[in-house]
Amino acid sequence: MTELFTTDQSILGVVLAGGKSSRMMRDKAMLLHPNGNTYLEFAVQRLGQIVTNVAVSGRSEGTAGVINIPDRSPNLGPAMAVGSAVQFAKLNGFTAILVTPVDMPDISSEDLKQLIDAASLDQPTCATFDLKTPHPLVAIYPTALEQELADVANSDRRSLLAWLEKRPTKLIGFPLPASRDVNTPVDYSAIPP
Fold it and tell me: Which pTM does this prediction carry?
């Protein structure tokens, strides 16, 4: 793998890959990416170009070469995945996590590097892309916010978006082509080979 940037050792990269893929009707993480890898392999590689340590969240089986972080309570959505990953990162000495979903195949390492550059890791401030609202699944979450994120994950609503909208969050512009996610077979078939 070619290294594009100096990797950051204080941030744990986390691929969110624990969804049921019910609309896709098969595991999105195992879809073939246009570069020849699976979506999961591609997501791990793009994070590995900008952070030293990469984890996969929400999968029961391990992924070669990366840390596997099971959700504390499975099937409770991304807030639980982010909360579990922040807890793991804090216990292991990381300052923050950089999350990215497995089903956004057009995000590049360069896009994600913008979040690292915008983040203030000495303050408990999140950084994310602005798509008219904060994008909670492509974001940096400082580990200092572990308890707040645990409270969101354990609440009835479990909305990371609602939480981000109420707190100081650095928002940066996001190139629209990179914002596409793949949730259905129609979405997947629309991707050029």
Answer: 0.87
